[in-house]
Amino acid sequence: MVPHGEETSWAAAAPRIATKHAHLRMFRKDRDSVYLWCNEHFARSHGRRPEECRQLTDADLLPAELAEASRETDDWVRARGETLEFETSRHANGRLIPCRTVKSPVFGSGGEVTGIFGVSWDVEEADCRCALASTQSSEAHYRGLFDHIDAGVAVYDPVEGGEEFIFKDFNCAAERIDRIDRAQVVGRSVREVFPAVEAFGLLAVFRRVWRTGEPEQFPITYYLDNRVQGWRDNYVYKLPTGEIVAVYQDATEKKRQEEDLRASVERYRTLLETASDAILVFDSPSGTIRDANPAAGALLGRPREQIIGTALQELFPPQDREAHERALLGGGTAHHLEVLRADGLVVPVEVSASLCEVRGHRIVQGIFRDVTAQRKAEREIRRLNQDLERRVADRTRELVAANEELESFAHSISHDLRAPLQVIGGYVDVLIEDYGDVLSEEVRSFLHRVAASSHRMQLLIDDLLRLSRLGREELELEDVHLTALVERVRASLKDREPDRDVSWRIEEGVWVRGDARLLRVALENLLQNAWKFSASRRPAVIEFGTESESEERVCFVRDNGVGFNMEYAGKLFQPFRRLHGEDEFPGTGIGLATAARIIRRHGGRIWAAGTEGEGATFRFTLEPS
Predict the structure, then answer these.
(1) What is the pLDDT of residues 135-158, one digit of tens each?
(2) Strand order of the sheet with strand 113-122?
(3) Using one digit for the tens of pLDDT, what is the confidence trace for 437-486?
(4) Could you confirm whether domain 10-144 is CATH 3.30.450.20?
(5) SS3 track for 312-351
(6) pTM (2 d.p.)
(7) Domain 151-255 homologous superfamily, CATH
(8) The domain 475-620: what is its CATH number?
(9) Domain 275-370 falls in which CATH fold?
(10) Cβ atoms within 10 A of the Cβ of 471, count?
(11) Which H or E run includes 76?
């Protein structure tokens, strides 16, 4: 079936309803081409009554060939939203009778096609004037059709030699579209009712149609006056009686949809053209490429004109073509493939394919990302990781060997240093016990100093050995009740000096995650430090508790002792770095260094704050239990 004749607006069937309806076969179909209504003439031509044709299709009424041709014209009208006029034929009395058919789309309130209105008549029938006379004899039927058609219809009487036009009739749809009652229109001139009609261009169309008698399709145009505005689609024709008829539709919604579609297409085109990744659009299942962006041309090393129209599989290396094409035609993401450039270079790509259906056709949009740099970076990362693992293994072996040598050295030094110290201490004891009576006071004082220094040296050796072992011992993590550990250290200090006047303030219920044995050592050193440096206070105050700092729980040990100058705070946790003399506050200078190493081994932080003469606070963090 080949359409011919001018393409008119969907309402172009209306004039034929008004002029030929007595001899017309008229029908209405829904969007699925099922008959909803037909007139007596249509039903009789198929040997049925009108009510028997409802809910039937062309397959029920026509031979297979004619039914298929009718379905094709229905599809054409629905897809384009336009009227189609064409020649066909029908069976009657054993012969084919040529006839002419007009099919027009019926639009819903949202601008979508909801059905088809059709009119058909035999070419052999009498002149249209006979049909007009018959129509005038059925005025009631005409009025029903006139008022119930979906399009606006206005009938005009020409006056002043076809220069002016007076409203003669105005249907219900026209009242709705132009928001004016029929009574306010009939008898008035078109320029009086629509003052902008001449600038709009429609008045010139009326005048031409009246002069020539040829119908005209007035393209969709925007109308605006002080009462009404909107896009209008007009079809104008002249009746045999001389009246001018305008059949029109409010195309505002359709125009808005077209504008939205145009804007959407422009946005898509802009995104396609400016995308940094290659984008190909191809059919499924044929794999024919329908579109390609500039990035696709750059990726494949060929002009996009040479890409469009080719088969998708031609983009892949020969051995992978079928597998790669099969993977993409089904859609899906994260396909890791290889494409073949025009210069023969194989490029690794990552492809995301989206499958959709457009007007019954399956379309795939594939986004191809060149991952050459990514693959190179991954190889470099693997190489660096392997090199790092090798170096870590080498360093680990060296560290293990160094630790073993250090431990052996520490034991050796410990043994070598302890022996002479024990000898010195022994001789000093003998001299004091056996010859103390004959020695002067000054000599005995010297000997006591030697003995004390020897003892302090032995304590220092023990502390150094313990400090060296802290870095090698495995942590045995568990939930630790710090409050209980503090209570035990407090009891031990109280037993050592029961006469000390000390006020203890210990927070209840402090739990952390850590090694209980090492944490006890850390607390012993911190609390012994507070005990020692608050010895001159009456009473001494020692606190243990927690506080929040930047949404982190911080533990602290605080005293009201002698404090320290904050200028030297960074030296407190260094071995042997003492801020006070041995004669003033005895010690080895290892305790705070030991506490700091234990806290850091647990992944925590430790720092101190103090003021000379006002005390000190040592804060540390540990993982909560």
Answers:
(1) 445 555 556 666 677 788 999 999
(2) 35-38, 25-30, 113-122, 95-107, 84-92
(3) 777 888 878 877 787 777 766 666 665 666 566 656 678 899 999 999 99
(4) yes
(5) HHHHCCHHHHHHHHHHHHCCEEEEEEEEECCCCCEEEEEE
(6) 0.39
(7) PAS domain (3.30.450.20)
(8) 3.30.565.10
(9) Beta-Lactamase (3.30.450)
(10) 11
(11) helix 64-80
